[in-house]
Amino acid sequence: MTDDGNHCKYCNRHFRFKDLHDQHIITCEYFYRSKRQRDRDIDLLETVPTAQEQFKLIQHLTQKLAHVENELIKLKTMTVARKRKAILEWLNSASGPKPEVTFQTWYKSTLVTFEHLQPLFDQDITEGMKHSLRDYFACKIPMIPICAFAQKPGTIYVWSAGDTPESAVQWRMLDAVMYTKWIDRVAHRFLETFLKWQMENSHRIRATEEDKDRNISNMRKLNGLGHTYEERRRSELRKWVFGTIAQDFVNHADVEYV
């Protein structure tokens, strides 16, 4: 094998074999670099942190993450508040809807028929109320005093007077107290309709022991199954009401809701 080209240009060492020369020159090149360049290379090499330093770093990053999450929650809260305010301002503006009757007057006349009792008999009073309210929502007068918007999930607005006689009639958010009064009034209408149905069908509900048991079961469905059941029923109905009446607020392009 020829010796030509097997001299190291850094240390002038001679190699008989080219493969050994090639292996050597890689290392020799590094050691013959300028001190400045080697110092730069060394600066690039980061020292591995100790276990205690790693723990402190994790603590620091965890605190920063918690701070960012808190700021995000505040931002979301502010955004929701702006949406709520914008929608309510539009409803009560000159161009907002103005129903002919207040929410309190409207819900006191909720329609409950014998047909609405059938879902109660088949399932429970919640289903009966859904059928009754669905039909009542469809009775335009010409405008029902209740509305909701997809951009504000869970919030229902009603055309209502305030708690005092001198309070102006305007759109307000449906609070828990007013909602409970509404649902309790509808439940009472079911009771009235059921009692009327019993009187007109007294011969049927007493015909056999099976009919008597069925009537007792229907009364239990009507009266509810305790406080926990009532709370769950109200919660389910509120979600259903929102989903049934919610509109798209985007159609009101003159209002900034986000």
Overall description:
The chain is elongated. The longest helix has 41 residues. It contains ten helices and four strands. The protein has two domains: 45 residues, no CATH class; 155 residues, no CATH class. The C terminus is likely disordered. The protein is mainly alpha-helical.
State the total count of DSSP E strands: 4
Which term fits the overall shape?
elongated
What is the terminal separation in angstroms?
80 Å
Number of domains: 2
Radius of gyration: 38 Å
Strand content: 5-15%
Biggest sheet details: 4 strands, mixed
Percentage of residues assigned to helices? 55-70%
Strand order of the largest sheet: 3-2-1-4
Q: How would you classify the helix and strand content by structural class?
A: mainly alpha
- What's the tally of helices? 10
- Stretches where pLDDT is under 50 for at least 5 consecutive residues are 251-258
Order of helices and strands: HHHHHHEEEHHHHE
Average pLDDT level: 82
Q: What's a concise summary of this model?
A:
The chain is mainly alpha-helical and 258 residues long. It contains ten helices and four strands, in the order ααααααβββααααβ.
